[in-house]
Amino acid sequence: QKEVEQNSGPLSVPEGAIASLNCTYSDRGSQSFFWYRQYSGKSPELIMSIYSNGDKEDGRFTAQLNKASQYVSLLIRDSQPSDSATYLCAVVDNYGQNFVFGPGTRLSVLP
Amino acid sequence: EAGVAQSPRYKIIEKRQSVAFWCNPISGHATLYWYQQILGQGPKLLIQFQNNGVVDDSQLPKDRFSAERLKGVDSTLKIQPAKLEDSAVYLCASSLPGWGILGSPLHFGNGTRLTVT
Fold first, then answer.
1. pLDDT tens-place string over residues B62-110
2. How do residues B41-63 score in pLDDT, each as one tens digit?
3. SS3 sequence of B39-88
4. Between residues 29 and 88 of chain B, which touch chain A (CB distance below 8 Å)?
5. A22 secondary structure, DSSP code
6. Which pLDDT does position A84 carry in this prediction?
7. What residues of chain A lie within 8 A of the CB of B91, using their CB?
8. Which residue in the set B42, B45, B98 is minimally distant from A104, CB to CB?
9. In chain A, whose CA is at the least distance from the CA of B92?
10. pLDDT recorded at residue B98
């Protein structure tokens, strides 16, 4: 059974700080990784995708991937109260089709 | 671009009753997924279609759940009979084909919140 693990949180950070969200996965053959944000009562929305080792930046968001360690993270710089949500890590198998989601990390940004 | 459409948004039924959910994916998206999300958990895949063929239904409780995707577009998910533990949000998602071994992002509908009493 392929597994994706995340700290459930809640992770609380003050406004303006950097929030660091972590995800580990069991399938060493995985090639595609996604971060989704889910507000309470809403459906998940895509934040970023990452396919190669290293960092990928998009605005205040940076995704980091280390396939050797089977680890992917999301950094949110200058955190805002509007970033308060659950962040889901999704890992896709090496056939590019089977999406497995982690349990999500609940982030709370305090004003 | 219109998003993934789902209906109904909410449904309340009694246990042992049946219920059906409908999904219309983004135009041109060949892959369609149904996920079950229980409160406080991540989405769990129920079934995945590629066009109108089933790719993965290994986690679908086939004694009570069924799904179809006629003509490779719309899809319906049915539960009969429902149990209390089926209370969850049912999410439909669609995606373009991936690129070889790389996956294409999922786009989710608004979901159907099912309460079984």
1. 999 999 998 889 999 999 999 999 999 999 999 987 666 677 889 999 9
2. 999 999 999 888 998 999 999 99
3. CCCCCEEEEEEECCEEEECCCCCCCCEEEECHHHCCEEEEECCCCHHHCE
4. 31, 33, 35, 40-45, 48, 50, 55-56
5. E
6. 97
7. 43-44
8. B42
9. A43
10. 67
